[in-house]
Amino acid sequence: MLCIFVCRTDYSRLLESLCSWPCCGQMISLCHVLVPTSIQVFNIGSICQDNVELYFEHTKSSGGGDIKQFTMNEQHGYAIVEFHDQQGLYFIVLSKCH
Q1: What is the pLDDT of residues 30-47, one digit of tens each?
Q2: Cβ atoms of 13 and 64 closer than 8 Å
Q3: What angle do CA 36, 63, 98 make, to 5 degrees?
Q4: DSSP readout, 35-61?
Q5: Rounded CA gap, 33 and 18, in Å?
Q6: CA distances from 30 to 21, 25, 45, 64, 78 (A)
Q7: pLDDT, tens digit, for every residue of 55-67?
Q8: Any idea what DSSP says for residue 11?
């Protein structure tokens, strides 16, 4: 299970609390993970780079948000979209198939 905390958390206290709960004999571990802010988009084909970038910036079309960096590889038909924060990425990943 992956939990994302909105505010800073005292991880030592959290781990202590989790270890005191019975979990069917399973071991609980707690660690920090890097929250991604980018996605790789495949099968772009011959779509113009500007159109792809605008699509992922437009919140109503894709659920995206402000783009920090956009890299497109037309030869291999993919793009990497990096957002300023995770919020844009969450809406894209959870909303629908693009």
Answers
A1: 777 777 888 888 888 778
A2: no
A3: 85
A4: PP-EEEE---TT--HHHHHHHHH-TTT
A5: 18
A6: 14, 16, 41, 30, 34
A7: 888 777 677 788 8
A8: H
Read off the tokens for 42. Answer: 């495949």
Look up residue 88 and give its amino acid: G
Which structure tokens are listed for 47?
């779509």
* Residues found in the chain: 98
Nearest to 18 by CA among 4, 28, 3, 31: 28
- The secondary structure of residue 32, as a DSSP letter, is -
Question: What token pair was written down for 82?
Answer: 């990096």
Closest to 40 in 3D by CA, of 54, 25, 56, 28: 56
* Rounded Cα distance, 20 and 50, in Å: 53
| Domains recognised in the chain with CATH numbers | 35-95 (3.30.70.330)
Answering whether pTM is above 0.85, one says no
Q: Measured in whole angstroms, how far is the alpha carbon of residue 64 from the centre of its chain?
A: 11
